[in-house]
Amino acid sequence: KNLNIELIRIIAMWLIVFGHIGVGYIPLGINGSPFFRDLMQRLCFFIPFHVNLFVLISGFCGIKSIRGSIIKLWVLLFSYLLLIAIVDGFRGEEFDLWSLFLPLSHNPWWFMRIYCLLSIVAPVMDVLLRDIDERTWRKLLIVCLIVDLYAGFICQMQTVDYDGYNLIHFITIYLTGRYLSRFDIKQLSIGKYALSKNHFLVCFFVVVIIKLGVHLILKYVGVEDRYMDYNNPFNYILSVCAFLYLLNLDVRQKGILFFSTSAVSVYLITCHPSIETFLMEEYDELLILFEGRIALEILFTLLFVSGLFIGCVIIDKVRLFVIRRLLLYSTLLKKL
Fold first, then answer.
1. DSSP letter at 180?
2. DSSP helix/strand/coil, 213
3. What's the CA gap between 120 and 31, in Å, rounded?
4. Between the CA of residue 265 and those of 53, 56, 98, 138, 287, what are the distances in Å?
5. Are 77 and 83 in contact, with CB atoms under 8 Å apart?
6. From CA 310, how far away is CA 307, in angstroms rounded?
7. Largest Cα span, the chain
8. 194 backbone dihedrals φ, ψ, rounded to 5°
9. Other residues' Cβ atoms within 10 Å of the Cβ of residue 309
10. Are 241 and 203 in contact (CB under 8 A)?
11. Are the CB atoms for 9 and 301 separated by under 8 Å?
12. Which range has the worst mean pLDDT, 14-18, 130-134, 313-317?
C-alpha cells in the first residue's frame, strides 16, 4: 500500500470529524465559552476541502471493478447498519429498516450514497478514458470544472449545484485524481522548473489567504460566500494542493495502516443520525466541566476527536474479526 495515500486518508477523516463538531455540534449546543464557540466556527472556514481530499484518493488509486466495489460497500454498509440497529434497539430508538434491506441506496450517509453511484460510474469511465491523450484529458477536466464549479457553484444552477453534495462534483474530483495519477508526483515541473512539496504547501497557504480575503470582501458587501461548499473553487484548489503536498512527504510508518484501513468506519459511526445525536449531547455536556476555560476547551475538543477516531477504529477491527470468523466458519461447513 502507498503509505502517503493512507496518511491522507487519516488526515481527511480526522478533519471531517473535527468539522462535524465545529459545524454541527457547536451551533446546536448551549455550553462552552462564546469565544471558544466562535473560534471553532472560524477554524471550520479553513478545512472544508477534506471530503474532496477523500474522493481524490479514489481517483488517484482508481475504482477498478463495479462488482468488487459494490460487494465491498454492501458488506461494509450492511454490517454497520445491522450493528447500529441492534444498539438502537437496546436504547429504545427507532431504526429505518429499509436501510437494512437496501443499504446501498437507503443508508443515512449522503457521502456513501453518492460514493456508491461513483463506484458504478468510475470503472466505466476508466475504460473509456484509458487511451486518451494529454490534450483530451485537459479538455475533459476543463469541461467538468465548468459544469461543476462555474455552472454549479458560481452560477448556482439548481439542476447542477447542490453545494458539492452530488455525483457531478464527485466525478469532477475523481477525474482530477485520475489525471494526477498519470504523473510521477515526486517529479512534477512547470517547464524546466521542478516542483517540490514546499511549493504545494506555499500554494496551499496562498490560496487560504486569498479565500479569506474574498470572504471578507463579500461579507462586507453583503454577498453570501458559501465558503463551506465542497464545489467552492477555493476548496477544490486547496484539496489538490494538500493532496500533492502530502503525496510528496517521506512516510515510512507502517503503523498508520492500522488506522487508515478503518477510516471510513469512523465516518459511518460518528455520522449516523442516532449516534451523532448521542455524541453531540455528550460533547456539549462535557464542555460544562471546563467552565469557560478556552485552553481546556480546545484541548478537550482535540482529544475528543482523536478519541472518537481511535474508538471507532477499534470497533471496526472487532467487526472485521467477527466477519472473518463467520466466513471461516461458513467455509468449514462447506468442506464438511
1. H
2. helix
3. 44
4. 17, 18, 20, 34, 26
5. no
6. 5
7. 75
8. -70, 140
9. 20
10. yes
11. no
12. 130-134
CA gap 48, 239 in Å, rounded: 9
What CA–CA distances, in Å, run from 175 to 10, 24, 33, 182? 22, 30, 43, 11
For residue range 99-154, what is the model confidence (pLDDT) as tens digits?
Answer: 889 999 999 999 999 999 999 999 999 999 988 999 999 999 999 999 999 999 99
Of 330 and 238, the one with more pLDDT: 238
Residues 91 and 85: their CA atoms lie apart, in Å, by 10
Task: Name, in order, each residue with C-beta under 8 angstroms of 174's C-beta and a sequence gap of 6 or more.
Answer: 55, 56, 58, 59, 63, 118, 122, 125
* One-letter amino acid of 313: V
pLDDT > 70? residue 290: yes
pLDDT tens-digit map of 169-220: 999 999 999 999 999 988 888 878 888 899 999 999 999 999 999 999 999 9
The SS3 assignment for 193 reads strand
Residues with Cβ within 8 Å of 317's Cβ and at least 6 positions away in sequence, in order, are: 262
The rounded distance, in Å, linking the Cα atoms of 319 and 76 is: 10
Q: Can you read off the three cell numbers belonging to residue 116?
A: 456508491
Rounded to whole angstroms, the Cα distance separating 259 from 248 reads 20
- Rounded CA separation 118/56 (Å): 12
**Separation of alpha carbons 294 and 273, rounded Å:** 29
pLDDT tens, residue by residue, 33-54: 889 989 998 999 999 999 999 9
Q: What is the DSSP letter of 149?
A: I
- Euclidean distance between CA atoms 11 and 7, whole angstroms: 6
User: How many CB atoms neighbour CB 15 within 10 A?
Assistant: 21
Query: Grid coordinates representing 72?
Result: 465491498
CB 204 within 8 A of CB 37: no
Cell 445525536 sits on residue: 277
